Amino acid sequence: MIKGLIYIILTSVLVNNYVLTKFLGICPFLGVSKKVGQAAGMGVAVTFVMILATAVTHPIYYFLLKKFELEYLQTIVFILVIASLVQLVEIILKKYIPSLHKALGIYLPLITTNCAVLGVCANNITDGYNFLEAMASSLGCGLGFLLAMLLFAGVRQKVENANPPKCFRGVPITLVSAAIVALCFNGFAGIVETLFA
Amino acid sequence: MNVWKNLFKGIIRENPVLVLLLGTCPTLAVTTSVSNAFGMGLAAMAVLIGSNFAISLLRNVIPDKVRIPCYIVIIAGFVTVVEMIMHAFVPSLYEALGVFLSLIVVNCIILGRAEMYASKNNVFDSVIDAVGMGLGFTLALFCMATIREVFGAGSFMGMEIPFLSDYKVPILQNSPGGFFVFGCLIALVNKLFKREPKKEFSCKGCPSAAFCALKDGAKNGKAENCQNEKKEESEK
Q: Of A165, A154, A164, nearest to A33 (Cα)?
């Protein structure tokens, strides 16, 4: 049981990293990765919202949509639930835990329309995970996102000082360096299977 | 505005993917084969036309404060329709696109066009804008998928190319290849059209810009969080 959960977490952090192998959440990955501090804030906020969103959407799907055979409403329901959940969390944090709101608050509205969050919720349903597995998978995906953000923020600070050809300046060179980071993550393929063999 | 100019601006001058840098996730994810890219482009175009049409019709009805949730509901409705149609008529494509089909909901191109164009212009112009943007998106996906499929898998639309299939570069089919080809393609567009390269992902197309605290921080001079916005203003 626990072994299975650890397996899911490790797989989603290293092998099926959401940003670098599944291409979800590219916008914040490229947009908010200029400074390590901001990257960490965004990563933690995304992890937080992913876990919350899974905790809410997973029961909704199985106890509401599936029960009444409304599976085709999945997309609409999920995006609405996530959007209102994020707003709610922001209000609650602002009222009761201002220090946490100060650290994460500015990133929260940006996450509403982040495809990584919706992607995690939808993938947990497609993969047929039960509640605990779904929670483990969303934790893993969040941590994977955080890891990718932190690593890439470090790489980007070096890239900023480099002097590429003119047409490559800015976004193109950032994408090429992301390709190299993704190449490193490709090296993890198969590592989890070996660990648990 | 001139209809043709409005239609063609989305294809080259304001290409949503290569110039405005919107909708990067599906661009990277579905371009491993040309047929997937076509399917994704057409699906997004259908949703874009529908949502631009509906939002433009409703632009005087929707209250300004809750406009983003309203747009999301409208878009999600059209996405569900497209999803069901694809599931019924092209199940293989539906399987191949997988989660990215439902992720059209959060595709910045669609929300961005709703916010930037359809909410301010009449129905006809909005639909033309949607067609142009949809064609631009499809074209960009097509270019990228062609490079990745021809050199990565040695085939085109599933047909094998005699010589290339012996010397394929499989890495182009994987994730690093996606990032790499996309970066090079943007650089190529910059070079060909002698455009000043875009320094950052801008707030202009970002659907969250309306309630983005990073932006407000920059304006009040409190934080230097959102440099993008500052740079844009200074460029103007």
A: A154
Q: Which of B94, B179, B201, B204 to mutate to test the interface with A (most CBs of A within 10 A)?
A: B179
Report whether B217 contacts B225 (CB < 8 A): yes
CA distance B207 to A39: 20
Count CA atoms within 13 Å of residue A43 on its CB side: 26
CB atoms near residue A158 (< 10 Å): 9
Partnered with residue B156 across adjacent β-strands are B159
Complete DSSP assignment for B115-150: IIIITTS-HHHHHHHHHHHHHHHHHHHHHHHHHHHH
The pair of structure tokens assigned to A66 is 């599936």
Mean pLDDT on A18-33: 82
Which of B78, B169, B186, B196 is the mutation pick for testing A, counting most A CBs within 10 A? Answer: B186
Contacts of A30 in chain B (CB under 8 A): 24, 201
Q: In whole angstroms, what is the distance from residue B83 CA to residue B95 CA? A: 11
Q: What is the pLDDT of residues B183-217, one digit of tens each?
A: 999 888 888 876 665 555 555 545 455 445 444 44
Q: Looking only at Cα atoms, what is the longest distance across chain B?
A: 61
C-alpha distances (whole Å) from A95 to each of A44, A84, A89, A98 are 20, 17, 10, 6
> What's the token pair of residue B111?
């929300």
Cα separation, A20 vs A181, in Å, equals: 8
Q: Are residues B108 and B206 in the same domain?
A: no
DSSP A20: T
B138 and B183 fall within a common domain: yes
Strands B155-156 and B159-160: antiparallel
Query: Token digits for A74?
Result: 């999945």
Shared-domain flag, residues B133 and B207: no
- Residue A87 tokens, joined: 């707003």
Q: The tokens of B170 are what? A: 């499989």
Residue B39, pLDDT > 80, answer yes
DSSP designation for B172? G
How far is C-alpha B55 from the chain's CA centre? 18
CB contact under 8 A, A110 and B72: no
ipTM: 0.86
Instruction: Determine the Cα–Cα distance for residues B183 and B96; give it in Å rounded to an integer.
Output: 24
Domain total in chain B: 2
- Cα three-residue angle B234-B235-B236, rounded to 5 degrees: 90
Please state the domain extents for chain A: 2-188
Q: Residue B230: which domain range?
A: 199-236
In this prediction, residue B157 carries a pLDDT of 80
Given CB atoms, is B80 within the 8 Å cutoff of chain A? yes
